[in-house]
Amino acid sequence: MIQYIFDFSNLSRLLSSFIKEGKINPEISEKEIKYLDKSLKKTQFEILIEPISDNQQNVLFNALRNLRIVIIEIKDQLKTASIRGENPTTAERCISLVPFMNNLSKVMYEFQRNKSDMVLKDISRNTRILRKKAKEYSLLTSLEKEMSEVELPVDEIKTFCESLNQNVEIVMENQ
Amino acid sequence: MEIVIIDSSVLITSSLFWECDVTKRKVLIKAKNIGECGTLFNLFKKYKEDLICVITKTVELEATSALESAVDSLLQENRWKIKDIMKKFSYSTLRNVMYDRSLDRMDDFIEEHSTRFPLDRAEINKIVNNEIEPFFKKVIPKTIKYIPIPRILKKMHGDVSGKIEIIEKIKDGLSSDKIIYIRGEPKQKDKRLMAETVYIRRVKGKDKVFLASFDYHFIPNPTQIDSFKSSL
Q1: What digits encode the pLDDT tens for the residues B32-87?
Q2: What is this structure's pTM?
């Protein structure tokens, strides 16, 4: 069975220590984040082969995807914080996001025992909140970085995107 | 000061515009009619004090729901291309990036351009039940005929001449003295938006409130079929 609980407490402790000491150590945070990212990515693949509905798969996959892009952005910004002269304010911004990551992780864990539509909606809602907060704290990654895991030929990407346009037109006509 | 109420068709069209570099080539997502939306939102920026944009919660929820429906079917339609887990991962990521980025843009529009107008829900329900519904029940059947879009037309992507041929056949079968809604009867959400518009007009003045929409339910006219044809 897929385990949906993810522990961000180590990351939180690290960030707190950076703030207390007034100094960021990007090597330590990189190690912790790489471990978290590996775990989240493994779960993404497990979800793709899990016998659940398309909708459930989509919502869970996207929740994990957004958790990953947030922690990777945290890693990248901590790395360059001293170059930008943002020690330890970067750590302060990052730690503000941890409660929202924990909230999302909690509702995903709830899904393990209660696979209802209501919990699924909660996961979607918390994914959006995490994303909005990431933007607020300047921790939302670029579109190019988000697309870096899309390993498809450009023409296939363009065709897929054009399908979205057409689907929206059809949906608007039907409404 | 004038008020423009934005319909979900305008909001969702505005959200479908973004570009990125993929292996040094540009991928651009651009909805049809994005130019007109851009013009409208530039007006809101330019005339901040005199032109107010109102996006109601009804419209926001409809636009989000429409985007969800549009995205939901994407993987199904492309199932034949997804031969292994790595491809499935890529397509799932792409679908979610498109969905998230469109919603991000929608949120930005709402935050940057719009005002929430205080609405009396009880009053709006009364307008729907006591004015809009009776209007459609009593007056419309005498003057308007609804033609639902044949399913085949929806699936004929890019086949413009084929669509025109079908439309001409439909047109020949209709009497010329009626106003025709080629897209079918206005649905509950259209009637709700009409009621919200009526309410705001009563509060702010008829000449001061406008509705921006690509939805033909709000602009019926005798030449609906030709308008639809020219949009192909």
Answers
A1: 778 888 888 888 888 888 888 999 998 999 899 888 888 887 777 777 677 789 99
A2: 0.82
Q: Is B232 on the interface with A (CB under 8 A)?
A: no
- Asked if A164 and B86 come within 8 Å (Cβ–Cβ), the reply is no
Crossing angle of helices A89-113/A54-80, nearest 10°? 160
DSSP element (H, E) containing B63:
helix B57-72
> What distance in Å separates residue B20's CA from the closest CA in chain A?
6
Nearest by Cα to A66 from B84, B99, B73 = B99
User: Which of A121, A141, A175 to mutate: most B Cβ within 10 Å?
Assistant: A175
Q: Which of the 8 DSSP states describes residue B53?
A: E
Residues of A within 8 A of B191 (CB-CB) are none
Q: What is the least distance, in Å, from the CA of A10 to any CA of chain B?
A: 27
Quote the CA–CA distance of B177 and B210 in Å, as a whole number. Answer: 28
Distance CA(B98)–CA(B72), nearest Å, equals 12
Chain A residues touching chain B at CB-CB below 8 Å: 44-45, 48-49, 54-55, 57-58, 61-62, 65-66, 128, 131-132, 135, 143-144, 146-147, 149-152, 154, 156-158, 160-161, 163-175
Mean pLDDT over the full length of chain B: 78
Which tops the pLDDT comparison, B220 or A91?
A: A91
- Which amino acid belongs to residue B160? V
Q: What is the nearest CA distance from A44 to chain B, expressed in angstroms?
A: 8
Do A170 and B154 lie within an 8 Å CB cutoff? Answer: yes
Sign, CA dihedral A148-A153-A154-A155, equals negative
Query: Which residue type does B110 have?
Result: I
ipTM: 0.93
pLDDT of residue B178 exceeding 80: no
User: Pick from A66, A147, A175: which is nearest to B22 by CB?
Assistant: A147
A150:B94 CB<8 A: yes
Separation of alpha carbons B18 and A9, rounded Å = 36
Partner residue opposite B70 with nearest CB, options A58, A149, A168 = A168
More confident residue, B231 or B196: B196
Give the burial class of A94: count Cβ atoms within 10 A of its Cβ; 0-12 exposed, 13-18 middle, 19 or more buried. Answer: buried
Whether pLDDT at B143 is above 80: no
